[in-house]
Amino acid sequence: MNQENLAIEVVYGTPEKQVLLELNIELGVSVEQAILSSGITQHFPEIDLQTSKVGIWNRACKLSDIPKDGDRIEIYRPLIADPKEVRRKRAEKAKEEGRANKVTGGRTKQK
Predict the structure, then answer these.
(1) How far is CA 91 from CA 17, 37, 82, 87, 96, in A?
(2) How many beta carbons lie within 10 A of that of residue 73, not counting itself?
(3) pLDDT in tens, 63-102
(4) Angle, CA 30 vertex, CA 8 and CA 28 arms, to 5°
(5) What's the confidence (pLDDT) of residue 2?
(6) CA–CA distance, 40 with 101 (Å, rounded to integer)
(7) Strand 72-76 vs strand 53-56: parallel, antiparallel, or unpaired?
(8) Residue 32's CB: how many other CB atoms inside 10 A?
(9) SS3 assignment, position 96
């Protein structure tokens, strides 16, 4: 039986440190197996694959998905703040400062 190898990358980063690991895996290896075999958890012991979201080239995927040759597997950190909540607070602040219409939320006309 002919074993094919795929060249992939596994990436993870924090604001202080980013790591991109290139590795060759056998055809049919799952995303989870590729991450574990990359050794990236030695660089970042805080990675918990049971709670972390993962993706291939910026598209969410499952740990059981099978990567293709040339794929980049990405491990995502949890969000620090809820984007909807941040936008809501920014809009409220703009209304209080008079930069936004209190009824519609749209910009006020500058005089």
Answers:
(1) 33, 46, 15, 6, 9
(2) 26
(3) 999 999 999 999 998 877 778 888 888 888 887 887 776 6
(4) 80
(5) 43
(6) 49
(7) antiparallel
(8) 16
(9) helix
pTM of this structure:
0.70
> Whole-angstrom Cα distance, residue 46 to residue 99?
42
Q: Where are the beta strands (DSSP E) in 1-111?
A: 5-13, 18-26, 53-56, 59-61, 72-76
Tell me the residue length of the chain.
111
Strand partners, 93: none
The larger pLDDT score, comparing residue 72 to residue 2, is at 72
Q: What is the pLDDT of residues 11-53, one digit of tens each?
A: 999 889 999 999 999 999 999 999 999 999 999 999 999 999 9
Domain with CATH 3.10.20.90 in the chain: 5-76
Q: Which residues of 7-31 are buried (b: 16+ CB within 10 A; e: fewer)?
A: ebbbebeeeeeebebebebeeebeb
- Arch. (CATH architecture) of 5-76: Roll (3.10)
